[in-house]
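Recap quiz, item 2
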Amino acid sequence: MASAHSIPSIEERFEFTSGAKRNLMIGGAVGVALILVGAYLAANGGGHEAAAHGAEHAASAIGHPTPENAGKAHEAAAAAHHEISWVARIWANIWVNAVYFTGISVVGMFFISYNYLAQAGWSAVFKRIPEALPAFLPVTGVIMLITFFFGGHDLFHWTHEGLYEVGGPEYDPIIAGKQGFLNTPFFVGRLIFYFVAWYGMWRVLRNFSLQEDEIGGTDFYERSIKWGTAFLVVFGVTSSTSAWDFVMSIDTHWFSTMFGWYTLASWHVSGLAVMTLTVVMLRERGYLRAVNSSHLRDLGKFVFAFSIFWTYVWFAQFLLIYYANQPEETIYFIERFRGYDGYFKAPFFITLILNFFLPFLILMARDAKATHSILKVACWAVIIGHYMDFYTNIMPGTLGSNAGFGPLEWGFFLLFLCAFAYSVASQLGKANLIPRHHPMLEESLHHDIA
Amino acid sequence: MAELTGKYLVGVYDDDDTVLHAVPRLRKAGVKIQEVYSPFPIHGMDDALGHPRTRIGIAAFMFGVTGCCVALTLMIWTMGIDWPMIVGGKDPISIPNYIPITFELTVLFTAFGMVITFFISNGLSPAAHNYQRFDVRSTDNKFVMAIDLGRNTMSAEDISRALKDSGAEEVNIRQF
């Protein structure tokens, strides 16, 4: 009720307690322990039975005599011979998590940028939370660069030199035709450019925001709008190209013109879920009392709406491919439905349930969006669901029949999650939790959607 | 809305802020307010009046479920059972093909259902002309508060005075 409620203090500072630090450290250590156990199991053949599955897949692919499937069968058979070691599984796991958490981080910047461009008032009070996310970008950037240098050969089929030798035994005219874009120097250049551009522009906005806290005035706000708009232009292009690079180029033959959107939708909704979850968790610890139920409901609506948006893009991509029935396109879904003994069928449907049905049904009611416990369930569903989304997108093309879901997968996810939470929490502690001189703060404090 | 009968006190206010602050004050004094009419929505007014929340959301969900079921039944029956047809090499009953139309009919039923429900529950229809109005100026520049004298134990004079004290420009009596 706008007329009567009193505004709690806006002077508050998040304290990253030693207890919280210790818990995150323990979480990370458990992650490392799980990774070691998982690696040990995988190295001793405890994972998927590679050769048998590869051969079966090859056989099943031969069962459908299209040129594309024949090629696939050849690939699968080759994969069965070429021993993909447990090391590849580690690289693939790092890649899945690095891509996922890169997305969540950069979406923090995306969120504040479009809020600046729209001159949104309501979000000012919790603006520090999206603002804290991109600090993790250098970590994932370096990890991805290292992974590409050491594990790129295992992860990306297009890095194999033989594909480009005309007349060679491995020569692949389709992949050779993509060499202008998919070659190591250009790829590494793009990778570095993405992270430098995203992180650099975030630094600028973050500095404006921190200076505004001390000095005040509308000057920083005006400049933030300009930089935020510039970021949106950059991100408009790089969100798509990075999705092609990080995820789509793994299945080198396959392409989808919707893939950039699809990945952006996935990143965006997971980023929103992380923001909402952070706001809820801070409130439970006594912070952000100035965030009222209207803010929470709007955040809940964001998660709700973009879960549906993700599903819309997911389904639009699926339906076009399903309906057109072009072999070179449908192979992507066949691989996930029937390939590798139907191993990816479970993650494929878990993704849909966690990312669409669950948030859709539990966040639909009006009051649910302002209830801490329900928001937490929905946000965790989305966060885990979109991890599964990237798992389903990346694993079949990199590991195929060697993929598994065990301690290794849980360990890497936990380790990245704890590291990310540590980074966010330490960023939150660096400034007043509420941007006290933000020109829209007054509007935000009185945010009321009745 | 059920037809209004009886005797009403009508307070006319000039400012939305005045009326918003008058509501809790009058309710505290023991006046039962029927409704406030305003040319535009006033933030916080629903809470101030203490009205129970609208149930149109539940109606919307029911309409949506109905639309979803109608669409699926229609397509599965006509395309798959009554006269099985193969389109685009797909099975006669292939759910992915049906999703766009299911979505459209869900939205259509929800939208129409909500509009019709809203019209019925407010007594609005293209055929209705005898709208009961407390004061036509509530569609222009005034904020109008209606108080049902039959539901109040306080005397009309007391309520009238309380209305004036809370900032009402004029207080009229309206009989339906």
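Residues 7-52+139-175 of chain B form a domain with the Alpha-Beta Plaits fold (CATH 3.30.70).
Chain B touches chain A through 20 residues (CB under 8 Å).
End of item.
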